[in-house]
Fold this protein.
Amino acid sequence: MIQASGLRKVYGNTVALDGVDLHVREGEIYGVLGQSGAGKSTLLRCVNLLERPTAGTVTVAGQDLTALRSGDLNRARQRIGMIHQHFALLSSRTVAGNVAFPLEVMGVPRAERERRVTELLDLVGLSGRGGDRPNQLSGGQKQRVGIARALAGNPSVLLSDEATSALDPATTQSILSLLKRLNTELGLTILLITHEMNVVKSICDSVAIMSDGRVEESGTIADLIRTPGSRLTREIFPLPEPAPAGSITLTFTGDPHQPVVSEVVRKFDVDVSILGGSIENLAGSAVGRLRVSLSGDEEASALDFLRARGVVL
Ligand SMILES: Nc1ncnc2c1ncn2[C@@H]1O[C@H](COP(=O)(O)OP(=O)(O)OP(=O)(O)O)[C@@H](O)[C@H]1O
């Protein structure tokens, strides 16, 4: 659905994007994670051509945006919604007026606009609040208005620029649940940037980790968790570093009720000491990481057994 290839963006002496490739599949929630200055916002602005990349191409829904002239580009952008960290609402307009704004720009007739605004406010859980001003709303409600406005043009893609960074944890969770529901119910593809691992853990199907304008690793969360040494796994399941000499780090992605460790001790002549561990719920299933040291005559066979049971070493 979104394909960015060889994206490069240079501001003066600063290389904000240094050859970024990104592939977001239709219907997925894709998170771009990275620290401040990694290039996340620049990437998002290049995806809808708010910034023109210095080099590289961006294709959204099969259309090469980098090749479009301004009229066609504006039409293509109507199919890409965007929400912002600080909501970017017009304080002089009511909630309904904010949601109606893009419809006015598109030239949608008044009766159709009013019908659509009512429908959108309903969708985001703000029925009956259309006459309020943005300053009468909480942060979470303001973001719901931002989401309703972003959906006005029936986009196939929603871009989210740190949409929950200004919200408290409970409100963050409610906005993430809303995004997940819109993803499922409308088949909306969502590309979000965030510096919060919690956002990635809660709703993302895939992730790219950026630093210094480059993508360090990317893929589905399920695949990255199974990739030995992945940075995502290390960050989701932090264990004391450096690992003690001779220790082994095991990642469990299967059925959490399988007694794999006790089985290995019963079957083989080995002892297991547990040095650290971390368990998380990812997309509804429990994934765990355990650091152990193994000793005994059958260590190699025990490790083979663990691998055969789907444990990642
Ligand atoms: N308009 C601009 N002019 C000059 N330099 C810029 C501009 N926008 C971004 N940069 C630089 O590009 C680099 C990447 O910035 P960017 O905002 O994309 O990072 P980020 O990962 O989104 O960080 P943050 O989370 O703090 O917003 C930084 O070094 C930044 O100073």
User: Anything to note?
Assistant: The first strand starts at residue 2 and ends at 11. The chain has two domains: 2-221, 237-308. The domain at 2-221 is CATH 3.40.50.300 (Rossmann fold). DSSP finds eleven helices and 13 strands in the chain.
